[in-house]
Amino acid sequence: MSNPANNWQSPDAEKRLARRYSAERRFKLLGLSAVGLSMAFLVFLIGTMLIGGLGGIDWAFLSGSDSTEPDTAGVWGAVKGSLLTMVVTIALALPMGVFAAVYLEEFAPRNRWTDIVEVSINNLAAVPSIIFGLLGLAVFINFLGMPRSSPLVGGMTLALMTMPVIVIAGRNAIKAVPPSIRDAALAIGASKVQTVFHHVLPLALPGILTGAIIGMARALGETAPLLMIGMRAFVSTPPSGITDPATVLPMQIFLWSDEVDRAFVQNTSAAILVLLAFLLTMNGFAIYLRNKFETRW
Amino acid sequence: MTPLTLLVLIAGLGLIGWLFARAKAQQLNTGRNALHSLPGHHGWYLALWIVLPALAGVFIWGIISPGLIHAAVMADPAAANLPAFDLERNAILSEAYSLANNPAAIAFNPDAEKLVPAVVAAKSKFGAIGAVLALLLAFSGGGFGYTRLSASFQARKKVERVVLLLLLAASLLAVLTTVGIIASLLFESGLFFSKVNPLEFIFGTHWSPANGSFGAVPLFWGTIFIGAIIAMIVAIPLGLMSAIYLTQYAHPDVRRWMKPMLEILAGIPTVVYGYFAALTVAPLVRDFAVMIGVSNPSTESALAAGLVMGIMIIPFVSSMADDSIAAVPQAMRDGSLAMGATRSETIKKVLIPAALPGIVAGVMLAISRAIGETMIVVMAAGAAANLSANPFASMTTVTFQIVQLLTGDQEFDSAKTLSAFALGLVLFVVTLILNIIALRVVKRFREAYE
Fold first, then answer.
1. What is the full DSSP assignment across A71-107?
2. Which of B196, B243, B288, B330 could form a disulfide with B318 if both were Cys (CB 3.0 to 4.6 A apart)?
3. Do A120 and B174 touch (CB under 8 A)?
């Protein structure tokens, strides 16, 4: 027999090893249960909404507008308000975000001023959404006197919130385009602007669009900033333009959840299902775009 | 002419200018290298000269014309017998304006109805003047641009300069937004602090805006208790362990499915979480409180809001932890495993200590997100400003009070509504500090391993 301290087969060492292995298994189980618990919560949440709301979805619900009677209340007014708001948001945030991303990635000189722009974009992406609501209230409504509760003001507020998201996604997408593409275009005599708009931007577009859709999905589910600018009006007819008083889908959920009448519970869950369906479609489309057009150089 | 048709008309003129100038440039293009710029650049040059002056005209007219319309309406005989008192007169005027926009509406005030024809007349008159002005600008701009077109004209350089200006302006919008947020919060908070002592606001312990006492400490405490304590007790272990399991243990196929599933949690709108917290979680928490013998628990509890908020934050913590663990060099992990450590020992003794700065920064970002979260607390946390450490008590937060103070009837100079902006300023500053520190830590941490 050799020295017992070096003997890996000794009962002492085996016991130690068994303890370490069981600690390993416990740790792995702990990780698995963390994932499981999070998933269970997701399933529980969606399950609750499905059980509560699936019975409430029918054509009358999808085509009606808000009403004081739970039976006749529907979501179309809110959906239309959401659509109008999103049109304003995307019309402002997408071009502005893409232009800012192009400028910062391709043209901006490295100086103090560019640093300020970069820092403020990164910070805006992390500012709580309710602060944007305060900005919209103070500037768009009180200072510029724009119509309250309108999709125009709501869309502008959400555009300010969405723009940093698009800028950050856009910069990453532009950064991913290899320099060889730029060099090739410049070498055959294209100007810098031509290089960017004819070659870099089209190649970066799938990435930019993915980021834009994710930003829009976030804006679509946003309630707090719109609460600030008064988009909680009772709207019994769908808005016909971007300056009419309107409400949006998440706001409709919030308003119905506040109703005393218990019959609105089904409406609320059903409206949540409609909202989740929209978000799922948008995110699914973003994932599809990413998988279909993602290029690895 | 409505603004929309005017804009379409201007765009149409721009298109015509583009086609025209391009055709003209093609005509000038007599042979090789005869043109400096491509015909398309000439087209854009003329189109810009048509559209930009016209749009500037429309914009400026949009600022001036409401004043002119107002003056014209006031000069109308129907306005002669309006009450002199400002508030009442403005109410009648604004009703007349909205009636003019929407003829189907029913007038409440007969005076307003009498004013409608005058408003309509003034609006159409000044609208027409504006349209003519815009078209005039479009044509004169186009005419000027046209005279510049020639074979040697460097249209591309001019157009590219405009494009660069546009790009610069877009990037300045971000700075402008930041400045706008800071300026509006500071301005309104300044008004508030001219009425209420800032020290009382920051250190006072009694919050009751209706009675004029603005001690915000209970709000700060509620925010910290829900967002930074309860939510983090849920989110940090679950998020961290999920990240460790998915990156270190799970089969790649499992990870490919589980990670997006986990991220769905972050994509669910907060109003849905709020509804869920209020309708499902809060009663469960209350029953639990009764079970463990808490007397008279409230239906709106800090615990319910904090729990749900923690769940919402899980994917955030998990993806930050994921990034920082992935940034630890592979050699460190291999070294530990080669020495005979088990996987869990490697994770606990090597990976987590090495990734700690990144994880801490991630937690700070998560806290900044949690304290700025609004809908969950609005729907589940309650309005009572309690200063207690009892998780079953109803508690209120900064964001809840902002919503409470600014919805419903409001007059804009009362201390009550202005206090919402002061709360917003505090929230903005705190989240900003958390973000800046966290981003700096992450940056330094990345550099350490590169």
1. TT--SHHHHHHHHHHHHHHHHHHHHHHHHHHHIIIII
2. B243
3. yes
Tens digit of each residue's pLDDT (9 = 90 or more) over A185-217: 999 989 999 999 999 999 999 889 988 998 999
In this structure, are residues B285 and B301 in contact, taking their beta carbons and an 8 Å threshold?
Answer: yes
Give the whole-angstrom CA distance, residue A9 versus residue B441: 47
Token digits of residue A179: 């320099």
Taking an 8 Å cut-off on Cβ atoms, the answer to whether A160 and B177 are in contact is: yes
Residue type, A147: P
Partner residue opposite B171 with nearest CB, options A35, A103, A124: A103
Say whether pLDDT at B426 is over 90.
Answer: yes
CB B79, CB B92: distance < 8 Å: no
Instruction: Name chain B contacts of A168, Cβ cutoff 8 Å.
Output: none
Give how far B157 is from chain A: nearest CA, Å: 9
User: Cβ of A128 and B373 within 8 Å?
Assistant: yes
- Name the nearest CA neighbour of A102 among A173, A187, A158: A173
- Which carries the bigger pLDDT value, residue B110 or residue A244? A244
pLDDT of residue A90: 94
- Residue of chain B with shortest Cα separation from A230: B407
Give the one of B175, B258, B372 whose C-beta lies nearest to A128's C-beta: B372
Best mutation site among B37, B48, B171 for testing chain A: the one with the most A CBs within 10 Å?
A: B171
User: DSSP of A215-234, one letter per residue?
Assistant: HHHHHHT--HHHHHTT----
Q: Which of B62, B42, B64 is nearest to B54 (CA)?
A: B62
Q: B292 — contact with chain A (CB < 8 Å)?
A: no
Contact criterion met (CB < 8 Å) for B244 and A123: no
> What are the phi and psi torsion angles at B297 (to 5°)?
-75, 150
Q: Give the residue from A46, A131, A165 with the most B CB atoms within 10 Å of its CB, the best one to mutate.
A: A131
Task: Return mean pLDDT, chain A.
Answer: 87
Q: In this predicted model, which residue has the larger pLDDT, A259 or B17?
A: B17
From residue B234, give the alpha-carbon distance in Å to each of B103, B227, B241, B361.
Answer: 56, 11, 11, 17
Chain A CB contacts of B239 under 8 Å are 34
Confidence of residue A1 (pLDDT cuts 50, 70, 90): very low
Residue A5 CB-density burial (10 A; 0-12 exposed, 13-18 middle, 19+ buried): exposed
Q: Does B156 touch chain A (CB under 8 A)?
A: yes
Residue showing tokens 């054509």 = A59
Is there a contact between B324 and B358 (Cβ–Cβ < 8 Å)? yes
Taking the alpha carbons of B276, B278, B283, B285 in that order, is the dihedral positive or negative?
Answer: positive
Query: How far, in Å, CA of A265 to CA of A250, rounded?
Result: 15
| Helix or strand run (H / E) with residue B157 | helix B155-195
- The one-letter amino acid code at B298 reads S
Q: Residue count of chain B, please give it.
A: 450
Q: How confident is the model at residue A219 (pLDDT cuts 50, 70, 90)?
A: very high
Q: Model-level pTM?
A: 0.86
Query: Residue B168 and residue A138: Cβ atoms within 8 Å?
Result: no
Highest mean pLDDT among B36-40, B375-379, B414-418: B375-379
Q: Closest partner residue to B424 among A134, A167, A227, by Cβ? A: A134
Across B395-404, average pLDDT: 88
CA distance B192 to B418: 5
The single-letter DSSP state of residue A4 is G
